[in-house]
């Protein structure tokens, strides 16, 4: 934090956070004392297949002004009431990140207020710590684009394990599309797999790949898809087996991180955190270790602007504003590259 920042000024004010790393354009507004005032999300859902970064970015550009306006209205604020603007600087898809960054820069410069860049993965952890009132967890962040086991150690969030290829959400979604499921009525493909898996009775062995502390899902996806196409297996049994194998892998790596760090809390976040079977497996593991498991509520576990606004506040307190030249996007920004000064000495206002 630049010493010239006036700490008193930071007690009152509002941060607007913009999230646009992938298929959602989302805006959140949080007051400096931590009250969540607005959480508005506009999801881009392609008719078919996965995300096309440029099409998603076009969606974000089309809805940006409307979503920002709606968030201000929900918060009961005018744009001039904002004190800082935060945006997800990375990691994510280049065209999508660029659209969010452009909107954030334009808003901050129009209002002549500071601009703050936030790491998307750290934002997931920080909002989870805040809403679940957790202080020092091992976090399992599982979504369409990410699979990371991380915990605070030394002066930053360290990656204890991560996927070597595709993310778990991507694995579930691709399998779902390969077997002919299509998204309907806002039910995520992963949730459709979960529902089918509940009717599964027979376990079909599939590749279980944990290398050191890292995970690989592509062999599992290929094999499950191949078995479906070969015929002879019930889809329900394949969904059940896919979940059992993938979630056991995630539980194993998370358990080893808990054992290594001796942390007493596990935080589960990201879109896949909604899965009851994954929650149950992790809960059994954490209870056996005498630790506690927390699941981040859906509205804050999915990509959202609130997590960006809140982490923007934490970061601004210590690091101040970004200059325009520092505000470029960082598509490959890793959690372990980020300085986390607000956790130095574990200040109580950061939790
Ligand atoms: P990120 O940028 O963080 O990777 P994303 O937009 O890809 O985000 P999220 O919105 O956090 O991901 O989550 C979407 C993923 O969550 C999809 O892969 C979806 O299938 C999965 N998902 C949602 N509900 C469930 C569920 N009940 N079980 C398993 N997976 C689920
Ligand atoms: Fe995310």
Report on this model:
This protein is an alpha/beta fold and 351 residues long. The chain folds into 2 domains: 7-125 and 301-343, ATPase, nucleotide binding domain (Nucleotidyltransferase, domain 5), CATH 3.30.420; 135-299, Nucleotidyltransferase, domain 5 (2-Layer Sandwich). The chain is 42% helix and 19% strand. It has 10 helices and 12 strands. It has helices at 53-75, 94-111, 120-131, 168-178, 189-198, 218-230, 235-261, 276-288, 298-301, 305-319, and strands spanning 14-19, 24-31, 36-43, 84-90, 115-119, 138-142, 147-153, 156-162, 210-211, 214-215, 265-269, 292-295. It has a 5-stranded mixed beta sheet, with helices on both faces. Strand 11 (265-269), helix 8 and strand 12 form a beta-alpha-beta unit. Helix 6 runs antiparallel to helix 7 (235-261). The longest helix has 27 residues, at 235-261. The radius of gyration is 20 Å and the shape is globular.
Outline:
The chain has 351 residues and is an alpha/beta fold. Helices cover 42% and strands 19% of the residues.
Record the SSE blueprint.
Blueprint: E1 14-19, E2 24-31, E3 36-43, H1 53-75, E4 84-90, H2 94-111, E5 115-119, H3 120-131, E6 138-142, E7 147-153, E8 156-162, H4 168-178, H5 189-198, E9 210-211, E10 214-215, H6 218-230, H7 235-261, E11 265-269, H8 276-288, E12 292-295, H9 298-301, H10 305-319
Parallel strand pairs: 1-4, 4-5, 6-11, 11-12
Antiparallel strand pairs: 1-2, 2-3, 6-7, 7-8, 9-10
Bound molecules: adenosine-5'-triphosphate and fe (ii) ion.
Fe (ii) ion binds at residues 120, 124, 143, 146, 270, 303.
């Amino acid at each position: 934090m630049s010493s010239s920042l006036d700490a008193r000024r930071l007690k009152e004010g509002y941060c607007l956070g913009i999230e646009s790393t992938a298929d959602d354009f989302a805006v959140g507004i949080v007051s400096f004392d931590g009250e969540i005032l607005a959480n508005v999300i506009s999801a881009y859902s392609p008719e078919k297949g996965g995300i096309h970064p440029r099409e998603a970015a076009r969606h974000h550009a089309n809805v940006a002004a409307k979503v920002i306006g709606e968030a201000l209205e929900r918060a009961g604020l005018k744009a001039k009431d904002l004190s800082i603007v935060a945006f997800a600087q990375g990691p994510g898809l280049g065209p999508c990140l660029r659209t969010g960054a452009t909107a954030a820069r334009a808003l901050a410069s129009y209002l002549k207020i500071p601009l703050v860049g936030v790491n998307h993965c750290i934002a997931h952890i920080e909002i989870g710590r805040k809403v679940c009132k957790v202080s020092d967890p091992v976090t399992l962040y599982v979504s369409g684009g990410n699979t990371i086991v991380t915990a605070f150690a030394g002066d930053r969030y360290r990656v204890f394990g991560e996927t070597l290829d595709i993310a778990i959400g991507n694995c579930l979604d691709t399998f779902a599309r390969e077997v002919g499921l299509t998204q309907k009525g806002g039910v995520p493909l992963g949730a459709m797999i979960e529902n089918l898996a509940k009717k599964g009775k027979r376990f079909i062995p599939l590749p279980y790949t944990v290398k050191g502390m890292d995970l690989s899902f592509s062999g599992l996806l290929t094999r499950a898809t191949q078995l479906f196409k070969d015929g002879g297996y019930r889809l329900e049994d394949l969904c059940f087996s896919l979940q059992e194998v993938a979630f056991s892998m995630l539980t194993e790596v998370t358990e080893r991180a808990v054992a290594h760090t001796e942390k007493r809390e596990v935080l589960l976040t990201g879109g896949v955190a909604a899965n009851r079977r994954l929650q149950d497996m992790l809960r059994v593991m954490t209870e056996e270790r005498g630790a506690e498991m927390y699941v981040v509520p859906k509205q804050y576990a999915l990509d959202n602007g609130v997590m960006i606004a809140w982490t923007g506040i934490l970061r601004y307190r210590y690091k101040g504003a970004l200059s325009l030249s520092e505000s470029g996007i960082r598509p490959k920004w890793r959690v372990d590259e980020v300085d986390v000064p607000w956790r130095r000495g574990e200040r109580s206002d950061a939790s």
